[in-house]
């Protein structure tokens, strides 16, 4: 049976009860009883993230600060995940 859901929690719960296999983002992984998490290899998957802001940030002065914080976190995560290879 093929099943599609937008809920990572539901997908992992179904795997935990023996109803299949799921492809789940590392950011969404939870420790569900009955599941094992295995990284994919050759080639490793990646995700491109984009920050969308107004062209004129005068009304949203924190947009650039938030973007900088996102870049910092993404850089940290990339380094952490690369070392777990």
Describe the structure.
This protein folds into two domains: 1-38, no CATH class; 42-85. It is built from two helices and no strands. The protein has helices at residues 8-16, 63-84. The longest helix is centred in the last third of the chain and has 22 residues, at 63-84. It is elongated and about 50 Å long. 2% of the residues are buried. This is LysR substrate-binding domain-containing protein. Residues 2-73 form the LysR substrate-binding domain. It comes from Streptomyces hyaluromycini.
Summed up:
The protein has 85 residues and is mainly alpha-helical. The chain is built from two helices and no strands.
The SSE order reads: HH
List the total number of helices: 2
Structural class estimated from helices and strands: mainly alpha
Q: Which shape, going by the Cα principal axes?
A: elongated
Largest sheet at a glance? Answer: none
Mean pLDDT: 83
Tell me the number of strands. 0
Amino- and carboxy-terminal Cα gap: 32 Å
């Amino acid at each position: 049976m093929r099943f599609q859901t937008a809920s990572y929690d539901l997908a992992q719960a179904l795997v935990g009860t023996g109803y299949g296999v799921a492809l789940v983002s590392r950011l969404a992984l939870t420790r569900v009883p009955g599941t094992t998490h295995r990284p994919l290899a050759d080639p490793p998957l990646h995700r491109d993230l984009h920050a969308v802001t107004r062209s004129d940030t005068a009304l949203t002065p924190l947009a650039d600060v938030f973007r900088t914080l996102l870049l910092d976190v993404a850089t940290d995560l990339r380094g952490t995940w690369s070392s777990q290879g």
